[in-house]
Amino acid sequence: MAFTSLQLHPSLLRALKELGYTRPTPIQTDSIPPALAGRDVLACAMTGSGKTAAFVLPILHKLMDKPRGKTRALVITPTRELAAQIVEAINSLAVHTPLSGASVYGGVGMGPQEHAFRSGVDIIVATPGRLLDHFRMPYAKLDALEFLVFDEADRMLDMGFLPDIRRIIKHVPAKRQTLFFSATMPPPIAQLTREMLKNPVTINVERQAAPATGITQAVYPVGQELKSALLLALLKRGDMKEALVFTRTKHRANRLAEYLVKAGISAERIHGNRSQSARTAALAGFKDGTYRVLVATDIAARGIDVEALGHVVNLDVPAVPEDYIHRVGRTARAELKGEAYTFVAPDEESDLRAIEKAISKRLPRVTVPDFDYSAKPAGRLEIPIGERIAKIRAEKAGQRARAAEKAKRRDGGGPARPAASGSSSSGSSRRGSRGGGRSR
User: Fold this and answer.
1) In a domain, 397, yes or no
2) Is residue 438 situated within a structural domain?
3) What average pLDDT does range 153-170 have in this prediction?
4) What's the whole-model pTM score?
5) How do residues 174-220 score in pLDDT, each as one tens digit?
6) Which domain holds residue 246?
7) Is there a single domain that holds both residue 159 and residue 221?
8) CB-neighbour burial class of residue 135 (10 A; exposed 0-12, middle 13-18, buried 19+)
9) How do residues 257-292 score in pLDDT, each as one tens digit?
10) End-of-domain residue from the set 332, 355, 383
């Protein structure tokens, strides 16, 4: 089937052709016709399946002849990166139309976002928390809203956004078309769909979530302390031109990026402790080839869309099988090909077995020729948090000791006084000491 058979507006077909899209993916084939017909849609779609276009295209088509100046579509998504990605897709597909989208998320100023509300941008793509911040203001009215989209709904559940979603629903018109996309359908999400959707067309709801068929998956057994060295070896061998690498913690992401840079590999990291500008710059640098490796925590697992990304590496085995599916789904997007490597330490074998059970497949084990699996690690990738806290406390104690010694010398060599004495006699004594000091 070609996109031309979906009866989309010629301006959208022109944009699709220029973007190199000739035929819709299965989720687009199944979702676009009922969405164009005005039906609510409930779709269980794996990451990388092309679902963004599955809801953006019918909305753009139906907005084409609507009066401008009022926001008529709202897309709710869990992460800033995913919101930015969706707006980019909207503006690319709407390039030959007057329509546009704007993002609303935290970590950046509210001024441009307020302008989007006041000017009535056609489509707003928002994360729940920042959207609720705006809803406290009188300008954030969506009374003309006709389309409501929930993307990555199960991820929003994982991140604790379900109460926020219920609050958001109170701010939008009850009469609307709702498009609901989720990679999995846990009971709380299923219950939410029953409350929100009216006689929806259901798509792939019973299909078990699994990685895209174009992903070649492999497991690399290796000791925890040698994971970073193995990654470096694969990069230096040329096995991976570029790689998106997932770690379980922000600390490990920082340490791994530093390790790779010291070894001569251009790398950056993206996680929740970084500012939005730093996260945006890191992702942009990875997309344009400035960085060969982007190290990320799961905050980015559903928010990174890199065209023709060849490799995803799980430096740490995800504790939840669904997270594995979303991580590896960053490659082989839109029916392309890609490879996903998972480094497995002995203590992670149980998590790996849970993943293999979930995807109904035993993943092949790979040993890298010429890599010394018995080598002594150059250093630890992760310093235990207790040790890090102890180091911080020791540094603070040292600072206090140095400050006390400095005060002792300033007071003429007498015993160091407490920092907050407050008595008048000590004040006069200090003034006397300073006076004597000046006479010398």
Assistant:
1) no
2) no
3) 86
4) 0.65
5) 999 999 998 777 888 888 899 899 999 999 744 555 666 678 899 99
6) 215-383
7) no
8) middle
9) 999 999 999 999 988 788 878 888 998 899 889 999
10) 383
